[in-house]
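Preliminary data (for renewal application), copper (II) ion complex.
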Amino acid sequence: MLGWFPENISTYGHGIDHVIQVIYYIVGAWFLLVEGVLFYFLIRYRKKKGVPAVYEPGSTWKALLWVFIPAVLILGFDLGIDWAQAPVWDEIKLSLPLPEQVVRVTGRQFVWEFVQAGPDGKLDTADDIATVNQLTVPIHAKVQFELLAADVIHSLWIPNLRLKQDAVPGRTIKGWFEATKEGTYPIACAELCGSGHGVMKGELHVLNPVDYQRWLHETVH
Ligand SMILES: [Cu+2]
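Predicted structure:
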């Protein structure tokens, strides 16, 4: 039922999709149940001749069960979602694997700026590669990013990587991803950041190791 998702090309994408599925089915079933009960009551207790409307303050235990039972069920579902997402959160957010490639990403009204470590593997050296709206990474490599915002809050969104992270002025937020399929994928801003928000778009290029090395050396020299 979630086949309309963009193709997953991230090592941790299945975990994210699993969490979304859990939430989707719980909320979907709950929605149908609540709407069903609502419409049943609407019809069952509709206006009838000779039956006056009564004020029901909900002061009896029997009436209060309509509050307590759903509250307990919702708490249970919440804990279930927590339980499903905890290992995914741990993997993506609490661990920062040793990077094979480092890139600094800056959101700026209305572009994505990338500064990528050159062949020496380090940022802030002479061989850094600076690009605008174009990010090139090798396939099957752990890419670590530091995310900054130059002006207002932006959000780095690469749907195929199942990556969405706010960029907040004054903060450097680290994260990582590993792409599993060659190709070109969209990058967007997911936080309304001004009049050009809708055109704040870029492209992620995932290259095989040979093409990547060629790109790296052609771009640096
Ligand atoms: Cu933005």
